[in-house]
C-alpha cells in the first residue's frame, strides 16, 4: 500500500530541542549527521544556516511544500486538543502551556517549510524510511532518530526496531535515539530486549541522561556504537 499524506501528523521540533534531546556538543555538530524521521523539524534548516552537514530522511519528503503546509493546517488544532486531554503526560516547564507548545511547533515547522525547497534541491531532504536507507557504510559520523523508534513500540515490532538500529549503525559511527518511552509516557516494551540483543551481537549500548524533558519521564537517550 502506498504511503499517503493522510497518514502523516506533521509535528516539528526545533534546533534547540534536538541539541538538548541528543546532548549534541559543538564537536558533535561538526560531524556529518543523519536525521532519521525528521519530518518538519527545523534542525536541518538551522544547521544549513550554520554551515553544518545534515541529511534528513522521512517518507513525508515525497510531498511538496504546499502539500505539507496543507496537512499541517489540517491536523494542528487536533494535535493540540489531544495534548490538552493528555496534559498530565507532559512536563510544562520549558514549554509552559499548550498554547506555547503550539507556537514553538509552528515556528519550527515554518522554518522547515521555508528551507524545504532549497533543501530538496541540495539533497538535504530525502524521501526514505527505515529499516532500509540509501547510504554507504560509514557515511555519517552520527545518526539521530527522534520520536519514532521506541515511541511507536505498540505499532512497530521488536524485529523492526532491531533491523532499523542495525541499519543506522551500518551507515553511522554512532547512533542516538530519543525518547525511550512509547506513547502514553510509559517505558518502551522493546527497550530492554533491544539492548540485550544488540549487546549480545557485539554493539556497545548506553542509556544516557539528557537535559530535556517534555514527555514526562523522557529524560534519556540510547547511544549505540559498534
Task: List the topology elements.
Layout: H1 15-21, H2 26-29, E1 32-36, H3 43-49, E2 53-57, H4 65-85, H5 98-121, E3 125-126, E4 140-146, H6 158-171, E5 172-178, E6 181-182, E7 186-187, H7 191-200, E8 204-209, E9 220-225
Parallel strand pairs: 1-2, 1-4, 2-3, 4-5
Antiparallel strand pairs: 5-9, 6-7, 8-9
Helix pairs in contact: 3-5, 4-5
What is the topology, as strand order, of the major beta sheet?
Answer: 3-2-1-4-5-9-8
Q: CATH topology, anyone?
A: Rossmann fold
Name the shape in a single word.
globular
Distance between the termini: 34 Å
- Count, helices: 7
The run of helices and strands is HHEHEHHEEHEEEHEE
Q: How many DSSP-defined strands?
A: 9
Mean pLDDT: 95
Radius of gyration: 17 Å
- Biggest β-sheet description: 7 strands, mixed
List the domain count as a whole number: 1
Oligomer: single chain
pLDDT < 50 runs, ≥5 residues: none
Helix percentage:
25-40%
Organism: Leptospirillum ferrooxidans (strain C2-3)
Protein name: SAM-dependent methyltransferase
InterPro entries: SAM-dependent_MTases_sf (IPR029063)
Give the key terms.
Rossmann fold, 226 residues, single chain
What would you note in describing this structure?
This protein is 38% helix and 19% strand. It has one domain: Vaccinia Virus protein VP39 (Rossmann fold, 3-Layer(aba) Sandwich). The strands form two sheets. A seven-stranded mixed β-sheet has the order 3-2-1-4-5-9-8, with helices on both faces. It has a two-stranded antiparallel ribbon with strand order 6-7. It is built from seven helices and nine strands; from the N terminus they run H-H-E-H-E-H-H-E-E-H-E-E-E-H-E-E. Strand 4, helix 6 and strand 5 (172-178) form a beta-alpha-beta unit. It has 226 residues and is α/β, with parallel strands linked by helices. The chain has helices at residues 15-21, 26-29, 43-49, 65-85, 98-121, 158-171, 191-200; strands spanning 32-36, 53-57, 125-126, 140-146, 172-178, 181-182, 186-187, 204-209, 220-225.
Amino acid at each position: 500500500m502506498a504511503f499517503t499524506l493522510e497518514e502523516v501528523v506533521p509535528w516539528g521540533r526545533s534546533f534547540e530541542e534536538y541539541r538538548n534531546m541528543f546532548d549534541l556538543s559543538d564537536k558533535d555538530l561538526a560531524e556529518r549527521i543523519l536525521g532519521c524521521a525528521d519530518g518538519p523539524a527545523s534542525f536541518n534548516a538551522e544547521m544549513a544556516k550554520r554551515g553544518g552537514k545534515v541529511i534528513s530522511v522521512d517518507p513525508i519528503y515525497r510531498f511538496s511544500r504546499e502539500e505539507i503546509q496543507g496537512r499541517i493546517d489540517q491536523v494542528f488544532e487536533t494535535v493540540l486538543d489531544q495534548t490538552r486531554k493528555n496534559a498530565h503526560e507532559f512536563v510544562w516547564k520549558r514549554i509552559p502551556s499548550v498554547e506555547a507548545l503550539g507556537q514553538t511547533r509552528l515556528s519550527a515547522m515554518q522554518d522547515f517549510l521555508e528551507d524545504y525547497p532549497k533543501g530538496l534541491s541540495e539533497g538535504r531532504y530525502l524521501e526514505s524510511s527505515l529499516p532500509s536507507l540509501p547510504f554507504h557504510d560509514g557515511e555519517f559520523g552520527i545518526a539521530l532518530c527522534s520520536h519514532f523508534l521506541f515511541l511507536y513500540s505498540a505499532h512497530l515490532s521488536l524485529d523492526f526496531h532491531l533491523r532499523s538500529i542495525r541499519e543506522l549503525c551500518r551507515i553511522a559511527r554512532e547512533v542516538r535515539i530519543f525518547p525511550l518511552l512509547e506513547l502514553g509516557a510509559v517505558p518502551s516494551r522493546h527497550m530492554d530486549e533491544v539492548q540485550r540483543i544488540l549487546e549480545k551481537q557485539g554493539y556497545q549500548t548506553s542509556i544516557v541522561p539528557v537535559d530535556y524533558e517534555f514527555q514526562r519521564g523522557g529524560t534519556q537517550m540510547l547511544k549505540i556504537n559498534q
